[in-house]
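User: Please predict the structure of the protein below. I'd like the answer in structure-token form so I can feed it into my own downstream comparison script.

Assistant: Understood. Taking the following sequence of 378 residues as input:
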Amino acid sequence: MRDAMRIIQYVANISAPIRNGPSWKWHIQDPASQKLTWNKPPRSILVIKKIQDDRLLQPFKELCIFLMEVKEMIVYVEKKVLEDPTIANDESFGQLKKLCTFREGFDDLSDRIDFIICLGGDGTLLYASSLFQDSVPPVMAFHLGSLGFLTPFNFDTYQSQVTQVIEGNVAITLRSRLKVKVTKENRPGHPRAVEENGLIDTRCGDGLLRKRTSHYQVLNEVVVDRGPSSYLSNVDLFLDGRLITTVQGDGVIVSTPTGSTAYAAAAGASMIHPNVPAIMITPICPHSLSFRPIVVPAGVELQIMLSPDARNTAWVSFDGRKRQEICHGDSISITTSCYPVPSICFRDPVNDWFESLAECLHWNVRKKQSYLPDMEDD
């Protein structure tokens, strides 16, 4: 997998400004020039299927058999997928017993997978991203869910499309992720737990636990909200160590360009193409008429903490998962990750994005104004 990823990362390099005599020129890379090329044919593939959706059983079965018998690939699936009673009790799914399985949080897939196929909606792509905390294999997403903004492929022609990806030379979008570190104070009564589910305890010289840190890779957004409390959320927002504002409202969304079309768009933010290197900060129902969403450069480091005079705690979630409470003394650090998600395009990054805006979000859909004929002078 890493051999293939070197090609991707090389293609994605951002060109530096070039000085030509007394003037400076900046070369802007064409997003359509980002291509996936294999150093060697891919051999192992991870298939992510939306859980508890019987409509996907037949496509899942067809795809896995095609990959194993026709393409002679090693296919990985999540163990709980094969434990689904519909699959386990149906003899027609017997061929799927040859599949390799893994368990989330227990098995490391980082060096086993060459590329990923998702069957379902946008949530399957977010889940695939969460399985890889470092380098992510290229992801091919089939639209078999509800919205499908991030899933451009139609399953009707899956054989030819998968074959094209295996042969290489397909367009990709490098979707940036957020690298998040949550640091929590160790409070009386909290168990002195060792590492579990990404939670790492830091010990002081006396051997007592003082702080606990956890790390996440986030594809869409980090959401900090007021949780069940009826009080306003009151959190301080720092940028590169400097306090830039205090958020008073229902909360704040920190999102990637990919996440700009998700919760952030519903909260009134602009939609940003995933090739734009940026981080979006969007307030949720701010108690201020002038607090508008802003975009900051991808390289900055954001930090979110409860304000000293906050009346209540806050809650944070990462792509809608791992929800947890944030108390006084805790902090959330956010910056752009160096491990993006290489998303395989149906056509190219620009056309796919505008197609999703039109088909999924009905962007700028309006009944056209009728033609007004020229009126002759009386």
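That's the full token string. The helical segments are 2-11, 57-70, 79-82, 85-88, 122-130, 158-167, 263-266, 349-360.
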